[in-house]
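Sanity check

After download, print the first record. It should look like this:
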Amino acid sequence: MDGGPPVGTGSAGTGAAVDGQAANTGPPVGAGPAVGGPAPPGPYPYEGVWRFTAPAVEPTVPRARHAVSDLLLRRGVPVHEDHLHGLLLIVSELVTNAVKHAALLSPEIGIEVSVGVDWVRVAVEDSHPYRPKALETDQDNTGGRGLLLVKAITREAGGRCDVQHTASGGKVIWAALPFACPGGNS
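Expected structure tokens:
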């Protein structure tokens, strides 16, 4: 997993937030035009950051997935259909992990959706200090593959994902995907 911006940093965003809080975390590190290249036009009406909290319980998994899907559709985010399906699967996996593994120390989780000119990023924050190791999986174990799936979807889409500690001792797990398929396939 690669480095990238933590959740909750930046300045005021351009879109209305789900919970009334908007911030602009900026694109994932390395996104955007090359140094010296033209700056993309913008801001686009779909750009912004939306954050909401939810209880760390099983019914939150489909609710979070639907909330993210509805938000992206309502804002008219031009994400490729394959990437949208992958992104929603990532939301389900990240929220499921927080519910299953962090709920004891984190009765509430934060879900953030950041949309830039040509990328979308989802992040799930919890208060549990354990930082999972996505590559250390027992091949005989039938569970524990959620983060491997997140990493595979992200890599296939040409995006990035990471796990970062928060200042309060918890963690944020995020994935950022480009709108278009690698190689410009639509």
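If your output differs, re-run the checksum step. Summary of this record's structure: The CA atoms of residues 56 and 107 lie 5 Å apart.
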